[in-house]
Design brief:
By secondary structure, the protein is mostly helical. It has two helices and no strands. It is rod-shaped. The two termini are 35 Å apart.
Length: 75
């Protein structure tokens, strides 16, 4: 009997990568949402008089999660 040893790993399928990304987004989004809400509550609004209005906390949390998740795929 002959065993075949592969010298390198098989490339991961895109479908699996998408599934992992969605799972990580599902797990990390609530954490980033909590952080966004807390930062909005504790921020000093008097210094921002005349400043542009910000996006929603949901958009801020989604952007933060989407920028942090790719680091999980590095390596």
């Amino acid at each position: 009997m002959t065993d075949v040893v592969r010298s390198h790993a098989q490339p991961r399928s895109r479908r699996m990568d998408r599934l992992e990304f969605r799972l990580l987004m599902l797990l990390s989004f609530p954490i980033f949402l909590l952080v966004a809400c807390l930062s909005r509550l504790t921020r000093d609004r008097s210094a921002e008089v005349g400043a542009r209005s910000e996006g929603s906390v949901f958009a801020e949390a989604r952007a933060a999660a989407a920028s942090a998740i790719p680091f999980a795929f590095m390596g």
